[in-house]
Amino acid sequence: MATVQTLDKIRESLEKHLGKRILLKANKGRKQIVTKRGVLEKVYPSVFVVRIEDGRNDDSRISYSYSDLLTSNVKLRVFKNSEPEDKNLKVS
Fold first, then answer.
1. Is residue 40 part of a domain?
2. Which of 27, 60, 62, 68 is surrounded by the fewest CB atoms within 10 Å?
3. pTM across the whole model
């Protein structure tokens, strides 16, 4: 079982990446994996919020709990400023 300290460490590590571009892969169950690009927007005590970049002017946001990261239901990859994006990556 995850301890409060473990979840706090995850939150603290995400706080270091606020405002950075990320690649998010979420397991929605039944072999459905959603991949999105976005910006880590906010970090709260129980959840974090990602603003999705979908090419439109819509401002869509998704929130996940830190336990989603701990259980690998959600995976994040932080882009470095100088890192080029992989154009062959399919984003849905």
1. yes
2. 60
3. 0.79
